[in-house]
């Protein structure tokens, strides 16, 4: 008996969607004690499949054909009441965003207690004991305090542990994990993966693990199912799929995964060290102070003594986990936030405390591309207007600015017709190209990319990275590349600065840092990178 | 938390002071002479002048203000020109009807509006939602006095279920008290039902789109639990804010209702005082209203702490 068996599962999409079905004739099984990874890019239908099993699909996504069997019970057409009974008792689900997946106005303990109250006959003292047990089992420190805490008082990793506790408290046969570690830092991610593996082994839970990250797949999967536009294109044991992929789509996906080994630059830029200095920070500091009427001032040192330099034609990567201060540094450099101390020298001029009016002409020289291409473009403005707005502000005549925009569209490999359209008409990758074009329209000397490829699918990410690389070489730009993803950093950076708790702990040439990390934190980061020792199929 | 409370209390002082100055000035600038009104139509100029001196209205405005504010600071709101009693006593006498009317109104409004709003959000876009939103526009648009007379006609005159108008003190028996209050409260509550239902719907709708709702459903909780404990609990802050604003507006809104239903509350007192140019009473009542506003706002802010553990002062 399989824990879960999907057979010919077909899920419809509303009329007018880009394809008729969210999932088409998907068949796969999850056995007891097995972890099946469902891999695919955004829009492949992997989350839809997960939600269809839980019975959580909205009415606009109906199951058109096929069956879902949970422990031999067909649940694709059972009444809602039966599904409710099965949730958390036989099947549970954990989600991507531990920050938003928990109810913010309810204590963590109460949220676990709810599961027991509605799905078991346990009395209060027994429930309390059970909660304490499960919170201990997910290895949360100070369980009593965790139970009494509200979600916002916990870290992302702790919240995800609470989610896992909630999902597994009644020992279900099936756990569906929908990108449960995607929003977490690498070190936290590796801890959560270890935890899931441990619990799953101990309880013999079958796990359907949804992810887009092949590193994670390599780390935990027994079997892998690859989904593309709603169709299952490959299904097999992990090593088969990752090392000898049969389908070309799988090969493409695996080929897009950046490796942790820094790329040896084929056309090494000569005399890189002598290239003119574009940006230099000296002991840059940013302290956020919370002012209080009475009582002590609370200070958060977001960045401390950050000293770094970027030369023309060079890419400096700032790597670190969330809260390490890497984005703060980026924002100080573009003067979106006011630095509290130190110098930011742009072409030799210190702009750290330059008043807005004097700074204005210099702003053009530093441009930034943000993480979320969905939110960083004004939805009510055409792409063309978004791109030329900057140049217009700096006195470039409209005709000329438009001409420049057209050239830039070519540079970022998009059609010039896109200029007349609105951001929502483009995919994430295309929008990020637009954002890059917008930044380049100012003809900057320094391009700051703040997690600019983190929200993109691997295949798109690879394309955008290549584009950035090309642009940098072609325009001889200096680039500051902020990322939490070591693999990405390994691909694009000449130099790398590793940040931890607001300080640079290691700084050097990319090869040095990646191949011979000296600081223990850097080493810990590398160790946590999922799938590091795994030999993926090479293309 | 304690500093927050202290700071808020300190902040009420300038607000009330500004209100006091404005009310005082505006009243002196407005046309109409209280002495002339008190003296009646047949009075001679000397009689009016004598009354004016008696009331202290012949002194310079600044001096008048000084005396009044000095008394207010000592807790004395002055004596009514018209009723010849202490303003504080007047307010005290009229407080019960207004308080009773406002309380019942807001209770009805909340009890009706919140479930309606939650239901509309739950069935977003369905017939119930559309009907409720349509009715709420109607609820906003119908003037209070029109609705009042319709209700009196149907409920009291045609069906004879409730008294037409008047007020019974709570001390005269709870049931007669309540019977007299129901119609005016229902009348007044309509607009607040419309307002609160809309806000409830909007904010529950927003909460329903959040990830934790999906989590709650994935936990296999009954839908009512999801709606109340997860959606409504998270939507509470805007709802409570609007209820608070509602309470504050209500105090002003009772003026018309009290007139139509002949309820001797603060609203009626205000109207009578204005007609008689009874300066001390107007000043006292408005100062009292402002104090109530400030207090309610303070209580709302304070309630956030209990509604959302992320809010800390």
What do you see in this structure?
The complex is a heterodimer of chains A (539) and B (313). Chain A is of the alpha/beta class. Chain A folds into 2 domains: 4-256, 3-Layer(aba) Sandwich (Rossmann fold), CATH 3.40.50.300; 312-339 and 351-528, Rossmann fold, CATH 3.40.50. Chain A has helices at 46-54, 80-86, 108-119, 124-137, 143-148, 156-168, 186-203, 214-220, 238-243, 248-256, 326-333, 356-363, 383-393, 398-411, 428-440, 458-475, 486-492, 510-515, 520-528, and strands at 4-12, 21-30, 35-39, 63-70, 73-74, 91-94, 174-178, 206-211, 223-228, 231-237, 277-290, 298-311, 315-320, 341-346, 349-350, 366-369, 446-450, 478-483, 495-500, 503-509. In chain A, helix 6 (156-168) runs parallel beside helix 7 and helix 13 (383-393) packs parallel to helix 15 (428-440). The two termini of chain A are 38 Å apart. Chain B has a domain at 95-307: MetI-like fold (Orthogonal Bundle). Helix content of chain B is 78%, strand content 0%. Chain B has 12 helices and no strands. The N and C termini of chain B lie close together (5 Å).
Can you summarize this structure?
The complex is a heterodimer of chains A (539) and B (313). Chain A is an alpha/beta fold. Chain A contains 19 helices and 20 strands.
CATH class of the largest domain in chain A: Alpha Beta
Q: Mean of the pLDDT scores of chain B?
A: 88
H/E element sequence of chain B: HHHHHHHHHHHH
Which ranges of chain A are low-confidence, i.e. pLDDT below 50, for 5 or more consecutive residues?
none
Uncertain parts of chain B: none
CATH topology of the domain at 95-307 in chain B: MetI-like fold
Described by strand count, sense and barrel closure, the largest sheet of chain B is: none
Rg of chain B over CA atoms, rounded to whole Å, is 24 Å
What composes the largest sheet of chain A? 6 strands, mixed
Q: Provide the CATH architecture of the largest domain in chain A.
A: 3-Layer(aba) Sandwich
Proportion in β-strands of chain A:
15-25%
Architecture (CATH level 2) name of the domain at 95-307 in chain B: Orthogonal Bundle
Number of helices of chain A: 19
Total number of beta strands of chain A: 20
End-to-end separation of chain B: 5 Å
Relative helix content of chain B: over 70%
The greatest interface between two protein chains, and residues involved on each side, is:
A-B, 32 and 24 residues
What is the strand arrangement across the widest sheet of chain A?
Answer: 6-7-8-3-9-10
Global morphology of chain A: globular
CATH topology of the largest domain in chain A: Rossmann fold
- Structural class of chain B comes to mainly alpha
